[in-house]
What does this fold into?
Amino acid sequence: MTSLTRRQIGAFALGAATLAVTRPAAAQAWPSRPVTVVVPWPAGGSTDVLARSVARYFSEQFGQPFVVENRSGANGNIGAASVARAPADGHTLMVTTNGPITNNTLLFKSMPFNPSTDLTPIALLAELPIVIAARSQMPYRTVQELIAHAKANPDKVNCGTPPLGSAAHLAIELLMHRAGIRLNLVPYRGSAPLTNDLLAGAVDMGIDLVTTYLPHIQAGTLRALGVTSAEAIPQLPGVPPVQAQGIADYRATGWISLLGPARMAGDAVEKLNAASNAYLTLDETRSLLQPLGLTPLGGTQAELSRRMVAEVELWRPIIAAANISVE
It folds into this structure.
């Protein structure tokens, strides 16, 4: 399995400093024509909705159309690779979850691009919290009670997960690793069949994005045991994070960011980062994000670079120990 070398990982951390002073020769101010915003996932999901909202805001701010194009496939690698190969003039960008730019380097034997050297990190946009939920008939009500039950009944708790390598799948792998328990994981092709089987009692518990289970938790047919974010979330204010239930330093979420091809001009990066942070402070942005299960992030280019490094290092031992591969 191909993984990032220490030299490649260092490129992430150095990227923010070096890209800020890079100035490819260009006579025209950026943007000088319409900008393509690639989303490496199908239309209609949370990432796509956020990308289209960001694109509208950028169009208003910069006076040029920002047009979203969905280029899905290969767990996001197809769209991400197209951005990595694009000219570094700032007229091709990408809004994506973390998979194609971090986890895929550990899940795929070979990658069509190198995220650490072929992309420019620009800004963190939002986080995708995940919830661990169980059927209301199960005897455990918290993560700690689940851990105790699983230790007493190893491999007997059936836990449905979204596809192998997804953020939710990795989150439950991390819980098993940190808590020293064994669940019987049942991977599904998507959230809909997993949710149907969970409600029907074919599996005891499941893990997925908050928006997937929220209506059923509110209806009382599913019980939320914990959220995987570092803090409680507005959508489930009474549900404690996993790390507040005895699993120290536990944080396992998806997140969405804005990137471009490598060697983008520093002025374009700075303008996009500033505009992204301004967008995330708007009341209408927060009103959009909450029903989607998204938590606004923001921050500097360097912070995104550091998160990319940290994500790879978090999942490297987990993916290796579980021998997870999507190929």
User: Anything to note?
Assistant: Confidence is low (pLDDT under 50) at residues 1-9, 11-27.
